[in-house]
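Model the whole thing, not chain by chain.
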Amino acid sequence: MQRPVFKAPGTPVEELDTPALVVDLDRLDSNIETLHSFFRDRESTVRPHVGCHRCPAIARRQLAVVGTAGGIAVNTVGEAESFAHHGFNDISIASQVASPPKIARVCALARDRTITVACDSPVVAGLLSDAAVAAGVVLRVVVDVHTRLERGGVEPGRHAVDLALAIENAPGLRFVGLMTYEGAIFVEDAEELETESGRCIQLVLDTREAVEREGIEVEVVSVGGTYNYEIAGAMSGVTEVQAGSYALMDYRYAQYCPQFQQAARVMCTVTSHVEPGKALTDAGEKSIGSDGGPPVVDGLPGVTGTGGSAEHGHLALEGAAQSTLSPGDKVWFIPQDLGTCFNIYDYVYATRAGRLEAVWPIAARGLYR
Amino acid sequence: METYRPSVGTSVQELETPCLLVDLDALESNFELVAQTYAGTVCKMRQHGKNIKSPVVALKQIRAGGTMGGVCSAKVSEAEVMVEGGVEDILITNQIVTRDKIARACALAKQADVKVAVDDARNVHDLSSMATELGATLGIVIEVDTSMGRGGVRSPAAGVELARLATDLPGLVFKGVMSHQTLQGGSGDRANREAIGRKFIQICLDVRNAIEDAGIPVEIVSSGESFTYDIAPEMEGVTEVQGGTYALMAHGHAMSGDFQVAGKILASVVSASRPGIAVGDVGYRALTSPTRLPALEGLPGVRVDSLQEDHVVLRSDGDMPLSPGDRFVLLPAVQDTMVNRWDQFVAVRNDVVEAVWDISARGCVH
């Protein structure tokens, strides 16, 4: 568990103990408004995927703005439990859950709230059914359809229809629809993004029709993400888009989604400046997470991040920065991958206009199981 | 916040996954090798706590032997956890520069023997002022840059100047010098390790010699790491070695011939819907670095294909022997930063849980 020195609300952000994960509330709210307003008068909705921040306070802000499905998506049962504990009553577990102890936990959650779980196997559907019957609950199940990313999912068309039928007929289960996680499509060309997104989502929509031809109602079609929400959300038959990254927007996503602002950064302190052209900070891999590449220094002329080691951030200095930057000075980093960054912090500081407004626990940090 | 805590005696096959396991036989073998290597040497091991983040594990090495009785910590908050866990001698291997943290280091120095690394004169003055204000005595170790281009003085003269300052200022006790170096991607064969290790550690010893020549006694020369664990103690003047990686040892590491992989990830298959492919329930959020893939323990013919945020993709050229619910064990290619993403070590022997240890300094980056 992290042990920062906590400061009172109102404290200027530069006085926070570093390394500090800081969210700018104005930017966060602006990002939420930007994406959610797209869904204002549409059939489709956004179901915020909270795996990229794991923070109930941020999720609550997302659900407070129009355009949502009324619930969230998570990746693990542990995340679902944590958010349920924090009062969230509609949670989709957008991954397969295959082991009996975990399925029992899903059933326990489903007793008092709307829980939906993804499935891509008739064998696992059998396990879900047995557990739901034993627990006396009805589990909502979506068929996970493979479209692009190699992460499981049943083949679209006949295989998916067969699984939908099996689920619909299994006691304790209710088939509610289809999902796919096509994976982030990082292309700059808008036409290519539209073609590839459309191709993946159409596979799911065709499967929807095939399921409906069997006389089974499809309530949910959950697809897409931050990078293609305007494409996914406009396709008839899509009911929800599982977008997550839009709320905070990290560096690697930003160039593909210029309408969003980078709302979360890591503030660190210069700890050593022995050579003119080099300095060190107190924020290395363990304070930022470099899974998506080295973080980028924000708005400090002549100062460039050159990567880091486990405990240190490395800076290259040019021009005036060589003589002006001293131990104790603050430097801001924009992480490449905020999902990783939030998963190593226990707290995030919410700030507005440069002052601390709240300290939010990242309650579902590290809940991999 | 983690709420799952398996009970002692649970079979590995019944553990919730994913799970960070410590293979006790491997860990004890690693600790025993250090105990034997340092049994008759003047130089001793000062295990680096940043790799294990648990005083329980640190004390296990101290009890096994070969150490000088204390540990290194990367950060002040990490040092606090070690002291609370019963470790009494801490070397903080980084510069502590903010007022908040200097105050914490000084407060901790009233409860244990605490030393911090320095490379800057103004910082030494700041440490002295706070130590004096709080009535503490802080040990000072000068960091020497030998090859990393990180923190540390760049010349013997700069080292002498700081040593003199630390000796003269109130609230401080000058203790010695330290350095850290890496194998720079080279092989783990003895000749290569020895050439690199001796060359760089000598730079640290040169600073020590210059300080002694200036009439200031040097009690500590803290240098060397896992790749020089058997080389640094043979170098006259090195008093302690900062080994960290050796404890849990990563798969594919240059020293994995001497030390065994003791930190492992137990995972389960959640999907095997496509031919030749199985998807497991752990990804790079928990393992770090999507490009440094872990290896599978056992399971010939199956390999780790890729890591996603929360999933691992396994691939087989023939039939995939794994089905949903099946367990498998990954040998991580990275341990240090990976441990920092877990709250618990589940210590196992012969596939049965023998202990559960909180990784109580997890996330202690302050």
